[in-house]
Write a structure and sequence with these properties.
TIM Barrel; about 35% helix
């Protein structure tokens, strides 16, 4: 496993991170999650991503059980807030009240004294940026949060929040967590540049397009039983990719991967990591062999000819 700085900052994260958006506390039992987390750690993964809203806090609780006994100083634990955690009017958004209470709630569920990276899950148009920035700065000064970042924020708001933090002498955001993969490249037109200008690292999620870029789904064939594509409760995020045109491209990518001596998933992860702005790719896993396969993408060195061939397929 290789490591990269989180943007311009000193924190180093594994190039491949493990997330729990659709798995931790939801589709996996605690013992399976623990096996996957500990195998990831053995492979050099130090970056584990969660959020308070993932399965109503259960993902954080499951992650807590999985990291119990691991050296805290060797872990980079990330979580998030923004989305409603109850029907209460203040239990949502990025107000000072919600941020402070959300930090304390996550610390309790994770059973840790501090969170390494605390991220704002979406931009909140109902709260002044000054209030949000000063609230998270207080959490940093109290030692409950070491670094903070954003997730899925537009480019102009990333630039604006950095300006507000500088104006008030507050801790600057260090990262942004957007969706990014071979099939979803919207951030290249603005967000990526805004983050680079601010010195923020990108920790991208869905780098395998919810599993489409593993090559296991084939044009003209229904998703196999037991795959995410066949799970009506979680495959709604894949809908735009589950068509024969896209799946045919993925099969062509699989042929390139095979000739290059790697799996389709490794090729897709390495494609993201070839961007210097990307600090880490966040993957999910339901089996240990999936994280074992994904981890190989770290440091994978493919020729410019391979990437040119990939570009031709994607165009």
């Amino acid at each position: 496993m290789e490591y990269r700085k989180l943007g311009k900052y000193g924190l180093k994260v594994s190039e491949v991170a493990l997330g729990g958006w659709l798995t931790h506390g939801r589709t996996l039992d605690d013992s399976t999650t623990e096996r996957i987390v500990r195998r990831a750690f053995e492979l050099g993964v130090n970056f584990f991503d969660s959020a308070d809203v993932y399965h109503g806090g259960e993902a954080e609780k499951t992650l807590s059980k999985s990291i119990r006994g691991l050296p805290r100083e060797n872990l980079v634990i990330a979580t998030k807030c923004f989305f409603p955690m109850s029907e209460a009017p203040n239990d949502r958004g990025l107000s000072r009240k919600h941020i402070v209470e959300s930090v304390h709630g996550s610390l309790k569920r994770l059973q840790v004294d501090y969170v390494d990276l605390y991220q704002f899950h979406r931009f909140d148009p109902d709260t002044p940026l000054e209030e949000t920035v000063r609230a998270i700065d207080d959490m940093v000064r109290q030692g409950k949060v070491l670094y903070w970042g954003v997730s899925m924020w537009p480019a102009d708001k990333i630039t604006e929040v950095c300006a507000v933090a500088r104006e008030w002498g507050c801790t600057l955001p260090v990262s942004n967590q957007p969706v990014y993969n071979m099939l979803q490249r919207d951030i290249e037109s603005g967000v990526m540049g805004a983050c680079e200008a601010a010195g923020m690292g990108l920790v991208v999620f869905s780098p395998l397009a919810q599993g489409v870029l593993t090559g296991k789904y084939r044009p003209g064939e229904p998703p196999a039983e037991g795959t995410r594509g066949s799970d009506q409760s979680s495959n709604m995020f894949m809908a735009n990719h589950m068509n024969d045109e896209v799946l045919a491209k993925v099969q062509a990518l699989s042929e390139i991967a095979a000739r290059s001596g790697c799996t389709t998933a490794q090729l897709a992860l390495a494609w993201c990591l070839r961007r210097p702005a990307v600090s880490s790719v966040i993957v999910g896993a339901t089996k240990t062999d999936q994280i074992e396969d994904n981890a190989v993408a770290s440091g994978l060195d493919l020729s410019s000819e391979v990437w040119s061939e990939v570009d031709r397929v994607l165009s």
